[in-house]
């Protein structure tokens, strides 16, 4: 067997994706590797293929139990002996796992880092030929990363305790320079071959919306996703609860996940989502790490997340199967305030940091938040923005994001900005107080409201100078000026506006400003109600897949991914040789499921001929 036949026979894929082959070759040549590839790029294959070609056991260290379970059942369905060791196993299951390990048949062992130095396991490891240690989600070793796990620090000690040092391969999707250096240093990788495949996920469509009513927009979007799975991320537990219960009231199939729920409920809800019993997962960012569900078609952020790193990771959970998927942020300027509040208050948790480190972290987090805000308000290509942020060559037009496709108009707002800034200045000058967005807007539009008249603002020189402009647009311009540092806003329930020093650049310095203005009415999302004939086949294949999944008690995508089903719709195989040409079908799966799927397809084809005659 060579790597190509393993790829085809076991995993059913016809070719390697970018980066996979180089990583596999280097591992097989005995060199340590570090693979930095975006979520969904196919990192697992990079260690699973060599694992099957090497003589000894491969040990995969992985942080999350759900992820292990998934990977192990995926391997088992493909005919590979693999087991996992973690705290979720019963005593009986634990013993069975060790039976498999001692039998020598096992090729891949998944283990939680905490288990590495358990006595049972140490005894086993000391007397077993181990050809590779793989560290998945390797960024967990770094305190700079987002998911630091102290147990990851014990990995290098474990490797040193082995009689022979195996090849070490490490994989992650997040890799800023600091994290990358930490991984190499803390795992003690030996001049590793490092592969960065680039961050782009070409099947993801990125969009940012700024709806007046978020919930309404969310529900409109979800109606366009009938029959598809997706995640709605919210910033707070309370938002999760509210959104989830409203969605249920409207009849959506939704469930929820956040750190405030009991372990049992969390596990049940997660399984409901993974096993497609529930379509929509409403969750805080506590949900998702280690979820390898491949058929997630959309990820909607109900609130802007705190930084581009989190955003790209969370959005990246969509479309792992390579099918088109959509990633949307429902942005509102108040999300910026909420995030700032959360960042400032999360400092308390880092009690072990000294003041200087703490203030460094705070600056860093604030800078990231600013970048995230830029993402939500930029007129540039959204994909280009993210790729630039992660240090990749410039993309200026991708054609697959809301900015590229919807044609925002770029409007010169220099004059409007002067009017707004002067108005804020005049109000303060006349009254001695700062006021909020609505008072400033009212003055500019020449409103007759009573409070305004009582204050004598009717006599200001800026009163009514923007009569022709809608309040919505003025508010958007104020937000834009705030986000770009020309206006500062006080905290509290009634945020007040004040000129920031930078305002002088516009008022006196002759600086011009442009802003992207979304065209007012978006065309309603087109929804093709007329399913094509093959969509019906897809539905039938899906229901066959669910039946099998239920029978075998595994998530549906473990049986076949949506991408594989779609390929079946294209190829329409009715015998095993043709079935084997479907992407995602290897020999074991063909043997196990081929007959069922082929007969489903041939039934479908004969029905169609009957209808046609
Ligand atoms: P990640 O890099 O996030 O760990 P996974 O290893 O979970 O990604 O793979 C994501 C998806 O890509 C899986 O559904 C897997 O079957 C698919 N995949 C991986 N490699 C290939 C390939 N060479 N051809 C087709 N699909 C692939
Ligand atoms: Mg992975
Ligand atoms: Zn674009």
Strand fraction: 5-15%
CATH class of the largest domain: Alpha Beta
Name the assembly state.
single chain
The mean pLDDT is 89
Structure explained in plain terms:
The chain is α/β, with parallel strands linked by helices and 613 residues long. The strands form four sheets. Strands 3-4-2-5-6-1-7 form a seven-stranded parallel beta sheet, with helices on both faces. It has a six-stranded parallel beta sheet with strand order 8-13-12-9-11-10, sandwiched between helices. The longest helix is centred in the C-terminal third of the chain and has 26 residues, at 587-612. It is globular. The model is unreliable at 520-530 (pLDDT under 50). Bound molecules: adenosine-5'-diphosphate, magnesium ion and zinc ion. The site of zinc ion (ZN) has 10 residues, from helix 15 and helix 16.
Q: How are the SSEs placed, and which strands pair?
A:
Layout: H1 3-9, H2 20-28, E1 33-36, H3 43-53, E2 57-61, H4 65-77, E3 82-85, H5 91-103, E4 108-111, H6 119-126, E5 130-135, H7 155-161, E6 167-172, H8 177-186, E7 193-196, E8 204-209, H9 214-223, E9 229-233, H10 237-249, E10 254-257, H11 263-274, E11 280-283, E12 296-301, H12 308-315, E13 325-330, H13 333-346, H14 355-377, H15 382-389, H16 402-406, E14 409-412, H17 414-431, H18 437-445, H19 450-454, H20 471-483, E15 487-489, E16 497-499, H21 503-507, E17 514-517, H22 533-552, H23 556-559, H24 562-571, H25 576-579, H26 587-612
Parallel strand pairs: 1-6, 1-7, 2-4, 2-5, 3-4, 5-6, 8-13, 9-11, 9-12, 10-11, 12-13
Antiparallel strand pairs: 14-17, 15-16
The structure holds adenosine-5'-diphosphate, magnesium ion and zinc ion.
Zinc ion binds at residues 381-384, 397-398, 400-401, 403-404.
């Amino acid at each position: 067997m060579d790597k190509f036949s393993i790829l085809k026979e076991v995993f059913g894929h016809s070719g390697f994706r970018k980066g996979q082959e180089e990583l596999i070759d280097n591992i097989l040549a005995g060199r340590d590797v570090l693979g930095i590839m975006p979520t969904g790029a196919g990192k697992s294959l990079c260690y699973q293929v060599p694992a099957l070609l090497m003589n000894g056991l491969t040990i995969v260290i992985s942080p999350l139990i759900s992820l292990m379970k998934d990977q192990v059942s995926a391997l088992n369905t493909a005919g590979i002996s693999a087991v996992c060791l973690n705290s979720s196993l019963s005593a009986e299951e634990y013993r069975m796992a060790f039976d498999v390990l001692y039998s020598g048949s096992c090729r891949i062992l998944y283990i939680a880092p905490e288990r590495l130095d358990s006595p049972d396991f140490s005894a086993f490891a000391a007397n077993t030929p181990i050809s590779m240690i793989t560290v998945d989600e390797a960024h967990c070793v770094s305190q700079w990363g987002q998911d630091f796990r102290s147990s990851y620090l014990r990995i290098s000690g474990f490797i040193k305790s082995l009689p022979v040092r195996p090849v070490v391969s490490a994989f992650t999707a997040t890799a800023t320079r600091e994290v990358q250096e930490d991984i190499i240093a803390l795992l003690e990788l030996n001049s590793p071959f490092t592969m960065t495949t680039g961050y782009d996920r070409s099947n993801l469509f990125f969009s940012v919306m700024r709806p007046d009513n978020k919930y309404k927009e969310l529900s409109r979007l979800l109606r366009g996703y009938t029959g598809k799975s997706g995640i709605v991320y919210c910033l707070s537990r309370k938002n999760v609860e509210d959104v989830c219960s409203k969605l249920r009231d409207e009849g959506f199939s939704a469930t929820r996940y956040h750190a405030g729920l009991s372990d049992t409920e969390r596990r049940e809800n997660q399984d409901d989502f993974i096993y497609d019993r529930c379509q929509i997962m409403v969750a805080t960012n506590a949900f998702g790490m280690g979820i390898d569900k491949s058929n997630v078609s959309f990820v909607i952020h109900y609130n802007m997340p705190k930084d581009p790193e989190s955003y790209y990771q969370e959005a990246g959970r969509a479309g792992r199967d390579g099918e088109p998927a959509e990633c949307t942020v429902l942005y509102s300027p108040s999300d910026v305030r909420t995030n700032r509040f959360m960042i400032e208050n999360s400092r308390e948790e880092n009690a072990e940091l000294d003041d200087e480190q703490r203030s460094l972290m705070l600056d860093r987090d604030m800078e990231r938040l600013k970048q995230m805000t830029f993402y939500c308000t930029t007129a540039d290509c959204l994909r280009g923005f993210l790729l630039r942020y992660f240090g990749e060559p410039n993309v200026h037009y991708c054609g697959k994001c809301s900015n590229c496709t919807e044609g925002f108009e770029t409007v010169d707002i220099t004059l409007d900005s002067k009017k707004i800034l002067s108005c804020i200045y005049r109000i303060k000058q006349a009254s001695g107080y700062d006021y909020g967005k609505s008072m400033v807007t009212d003055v500019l539009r020449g409103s007759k409201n009573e409070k305004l008249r009582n204050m004598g603002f009717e006599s200001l020189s800026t009163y009514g100078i923007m009569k022709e402009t809608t309040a919505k647009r003025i508010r958007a311009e104020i937000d834009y000026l705030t986000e770009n540092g020309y206006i500062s806003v006080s905290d509290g329930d009634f945020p007040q506006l004040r000129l920031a020093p930078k305002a002088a650049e516009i008022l006196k310095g002759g600086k011009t400003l442009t802003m992207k203005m979304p065209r007012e009415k978006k065309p309603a999302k087109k929804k093709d109600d007329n399913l094509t004939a093959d969509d019906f086949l897809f539905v039938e294949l899906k229901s066959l897949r669910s039946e099998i999944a239920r029978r075998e008690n595994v998530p549906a995508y473990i049986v076949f991914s949506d991408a594989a089903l779609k390929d079946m719709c294209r190829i329409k195989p009715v015998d095993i040789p043709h079935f084997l040409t479907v992407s995602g079908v290897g020999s074991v799966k063909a043997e196990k499921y081929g007959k069922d799927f082929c007969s489903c397809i041939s039934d479908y084809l004969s029905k169609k001929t009957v209808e046609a005659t």
